[in-house]
């Protein structure tokens, strides 16, 4: 959602980048010719971002320093590396709480009309997929996003659910900071909720399923803001709190990949056309 995933806001929290840990694994070798790539132009998405209730961050670029390329709705794909399958991460479309930057974990909210428009606008960004596996969070906001984007059939996976915010569910970061100055979710200690380590363990299990399916084709994970950022951090071999470095917009797809057997981010938070209409 947008708000963080929880979807509250999006900007990366200040602080040094976490030390790298051994990547959970590497993706399989790639041999098939490159596929069409996502669109290369267009303003950045508007609305709350996908990282935390507060803050904002740049979109459309990844840690590797390159943004989307191509010319048409699907791009030329000439700069995409060969791969057995692509690993796409998609955050669900907008909900009322994500729009208002409220932490949304277990609360099962529907998409707003704009969120549904965002989901319908996803196919051109994803290019010509040949999914071997689509994993979706059990929350209706993620399942509806997958349905409207044509990402079916899909497998509902509890490990793809958003961070459990415990007693901070439904609150904004500003409200929480009235009692805990300087708090962010990346400390991983919401009362009665999940720790960062627990969310990271779920992300590792999801990545194991992703890597097992990539030799057969593309894999798409339709998830949430905070969990999606943890998933990217673990793909790169960072600690779960490394997710604070990745702002993630609602319904803004990301392409995770490897380069010379090293996990990289190839596309990040591509602007959704519904946000610029």
Model description:
The protein has 277 residues and is of the alpha/beta class. Helix content is 21%, strand content 11%. It has 7 helices and 6 strands; from the N terminus they run βαααβαβααβαββ. It has a 6-stranded mixed β-sheet, sandwiched between helices. Strand 2, helix 4 (140-148) and strand 3 (155-156) form a beta-alpha-beta unit. The longest helix is centred in the C-terminal third of the chain and has 18 residues, at 196-213. The model is unreliable at 1-6, 9-23 and 25-83 (pLDDT under 50).
Distance linking N and C termini: 19 Å
Cα shape = globular
Strand content: 5-15%
Total strands: 6
Q: Mean pLDDT across all residues, rounded?
A: 80
Instruction: Summarize the amount of helix as a percent range.
Output: 10-25%
Poorly predicted spans: 1-6, 9-23, 25-83
- The CATH topology name of one domain reads Rossmann fold
Please give the CATH architecture of one domain: 3-Layer(aba) Sandwich
Major sheet attributes: 6 strands, mixed
Q: What is the CATH superfamily label of one domain?
A: Phosphoglycerate mutase-like
Number of helices: 7
Order of helices and strands: EHHHEHEHHEHEE
What structural class do helix, strand and pairing data support? Answer: alpha/beta
Task: Assign the CATH class of one domain.
Answer: Alpha Beta
Give the strand line-up of the largest sheet. Answer: 3-2-4-1-5-6
| Quaternary structure of the protein | single chain
What is Rg?
17 Å
């Amino acid at each position: 959602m947008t708000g963080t995933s929880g979807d509250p806001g999006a900007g990366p929290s200040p602080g040094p980048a976490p030390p790298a840990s051994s990547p959970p694994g590497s993706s399989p070798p790639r041999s098939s010719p490159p596929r069409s790539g996502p669109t290369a132009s267009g303003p950045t998405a508007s609305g709350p971002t996908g990282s935390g209730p507060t803050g904002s961050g740049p979109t459309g670029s990844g840690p590797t320093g390159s943004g989307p390329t191509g010319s048409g709705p699907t791009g030329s794909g000439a700069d995409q590396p060969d791969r057995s399958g692509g690993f796409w991460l998609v955050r669900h479309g907008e909900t009322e709480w994500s729009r208002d930057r409220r932490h949304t974990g277990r609360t099962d909210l529907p998409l707003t009309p704009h969120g549904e428009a965002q989901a319908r606008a996803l196919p051109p960004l994803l290019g010509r997929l040949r999914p071997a596996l689509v994993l979706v969070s059990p929350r209706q906001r993620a399942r509806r996003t997958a349905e409207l984007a044509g990402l079916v059939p899909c497998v509902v996976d509890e490990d793809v659910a958003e961070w459990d915010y415990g007693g901070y569910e439904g609150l904004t970061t500003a409200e929480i900071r009235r009692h805990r100055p300087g708090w962010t979710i990346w400390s991983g200690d919401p009362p009665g909720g999940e720790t960062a380590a627990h969310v990271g363990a779920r992300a590792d299990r999801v990545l194991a399923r992703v890597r097992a399916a990539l030799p057969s084709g593309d894999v798409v994970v339709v998830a949430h803001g905070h969990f999606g950022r943890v998933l990217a951090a673990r793909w790169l071999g960072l600690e779960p709190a490394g997710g604070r470095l990745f702002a993630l917009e609602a319904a803004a797809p990301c392409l995770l990949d490897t380069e010379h057997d090293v996990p990289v981010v190839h596309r990040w938070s591509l602007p959704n056309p519904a946000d610029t209409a």
